[in-house]
Amino acid sequence: MKALQINNPGDFDVKEVPMPTPGPGEILLRVLAVTTCPHWDMHILGGEPMFPGTELHYPYTLGQPGHEACGDIAAVGEGVTRLAAGDRVASWIDPGHDKPGCYAQYVVKPAEHVIHVPAELPPEACAPFELATCAAAFLVQVERIETIQGKRVGVFGLGPAGLVFIQLALAAGAVEVVGFDPLPERRTLATQLGAAKVIDAASPEAEAFPRCFTPGCLDIAFDCVGAPAVARRAMEVTNHVVSLFAVQREPYVFEQHCWGRMTLTARGPQDFSTAEYVAKRLTEGKLDLGPLVTRKMPLQDYAQGVELLRKREATKIAFMPQES
User: Fold this and answer.
1) Domain assignment of residue 284, yes or no
2) pLDDT, average across residues 87-96
């Protein structure tokens, strides 16, 4: 079978490697589509650690950093009863980059790390399932503090995660979702996915957005950018809860005006119940991951796909290993 390996920064191969065999409690996944997790791909191929203070070692683990995958089960190992060969499934959790990843035609996974998805959907429309589960873990955590039903929700950053948050917030009963992003293409996509209002984050309109406890402000906000200025802005215009989804690379300052009225949250448990939550939304048609995919490519075009992400000319790329 073929699998991608990043040998050194900027250098990768699509190699012919032996077919893996599932052990007890594992499944062999025939990968039909694997989507980029943009910052992971840009960082690892670029030789820059994803998280400050960590180190990268090359050659990077075979098939990594691919972890958002959809495919058909080719075989099951001993003791697996919930799944069977031929089932269409998606990976719902990233097991870590020390294990073979999904940039491959086949990959072995623990059976509990995949979940059934609708077979009638294109595989690329189910591959970002892991991202949606990660986002849902944040949203469910917010709901433990403040119900989203009937609330006005803001989403800062309309990349892949932001586009998922828009849909999950609406499915949870948000009365209105407002999106903030400097890129017009992303604002257009956010509108198509249900945002009632989209604002150029670099515009005077964004600067003039109503402050907390004034008419038109937000009740709940999700930060999908990870910049201190954006997190601060979210706190300034939100009454109750700001969820910090994005990777934090610099210190945030908790503004004095927020004391006593603002709750900051991070991720809640990302477990199988969260995956079931996402699968239900997907099956109901309340979550559409297909529009997140800008292009489909074979594994051989990995560098080209990552360059599109770097130039912000794509939201996600779906690599199709069986076409490689």
Assistant:
1) no
2) 95
